Amino acid sequence: MTEAPQTEPRTDWTREEIAALFDLPFTELVFRAAEVHRANHAANEVQLSTLLSIKTGGCAEDCGYCSQSVKADSGVKATKLMDVQAVLQRAAQAADQGSTRFCMGAAWRNPKDRDMPAIIEMVKGVREMGMETCMTLGMLTPEQADMLKEAGLDYYNHNIDTSPERYDQVITTRTMEDRLDTLSEVRRAGINVCSGGIVGMGETREDRVGFVHTLATLPDHPQSVPVNALVPVKGTVLGDMLADTPMAKIDDVEFVRTVAVARITMPHSMVRLSAGRESMSEMTQAMCFMAGANSIFTGDKLLTAPNAGDDTDAAMFARLGLKAMAISETQEQVDASRMPKGCVKMEPAE
């Protein structure tokens, strides 16, 4: 494959253009996505990230996919915020396993000010280990965003979940605009944005077009774009719905298409193959990597959902000839994604 010229990010994508990408013949779409990926990222390198639930269950939101909502009858028990040292111990274990980013998630609508000192200590402690830090805590006030920036937080995750048109069929306790406002605060504070969503929630392709369009037309593309396949959990609205209508589940080809379109429209972003990998075949995951996914969550658990596991991933990487991205390489990707449009990174003269 010949190397394509580096792609300048566009934020003026139309829905019609994105729909046309989805409609391409599958092999043509994957080929184009692979060209964009190789022009903007190192081929065959994948970032390893670890996700830890630092406060589980009892969330006041009614997200239809989430086992941690108080509205769900999923059996998930509410816990208090983890002790700082316990979190740092888990981060150290993740670093030993090769993770370069440590993501911490709390099941909150929004953090309380009384929780911020502990959160800040977690961020500082993980950064001291040399890993990138990511937090997902719900909606943020401007003051909280500034505190996280001052502590050195690298990424803040706040997914838009789905298309604007389908949003209120999935969540009613907050709006898409609420989510976009939080992303705006994160950008204002100078923190990298991690924002994606979930497919396989019974949505249409038009919804997937709207989901990608919303992210690809933000003032700046998210530096990380997680693409999740719904993990149906009994006792949640969507988990029970899919149990009754299994045809609503997204098929593997359509999932790979979504990854490929995300890569083409957001060329500098890290596209993360996230929840749902434990039920995907190795070949489906391989197609996702070919289509531009270059980040995964490792370990055997994602918050409360199962994950593939370190040993399984290591064996897959060996068979596919993939290698884990080093921390310096992930930072280069971040720096490139945040450069003003039209700028070219200059290499030092020899």
Topology order in helix (H) and strand (E) letters? HHEHEHEHEHHEEHEHHEHEEEHEH
Count of runs of 4 or more consecutive helical residues? 13
- Number of structural units classed as domains: 1
Q: What is the general shape?
A: globular
Mean of all residue-level pLDDT scores? 85
CATH topology: TIM Barrel
- Relative helix content: 40-55%
Assign the structural class, choosing from mainly alpha, mainly beta, alpha/beta, alpha+beta, or little secondary structure.
alpha/beta
Your description of this structure?
By secondary structure, the protein is α/β, with parallel strands linked by helices. It has a single domain, classed as Aldolase class I (TIM Barrel, Alpha-Beta Barrel), CATH 3.20.20.70. Helix content is 41%, strand content 14%. It has 13 helices and 12 strands. The protein has helices at residues 15-22, 26-40, 84-96, 116-128, 142-151, 167-170, 176-189, 205-216, 237-244, 252-265, 282-290, 310-320, 327-337; strands spanning 45-55, 101-106, 132-136, 155-157, 192-194, 197-199, 224-229, 270-273, 295-297, 301-302, 305-306, 323-324. Strands 1, 2, 3, 4, 5, 6, 7, 8, 9 and 12 form a 10-stranded parallel sheet that branches. Helix 11 (282-290) links the parallel strand 8 and strand 9 (295-297). Helix 2 (26-40) crosses helix 10, helix 3 packs parallel to helix 4 and helix 4 (116-128) runs parallel beside helix 5 (142-151). The chain starts with 14 loop residues before the first helix and ends in a 13-residue tail after the last helix. The model is unreliable at 329-350 (pLDDT under 50).
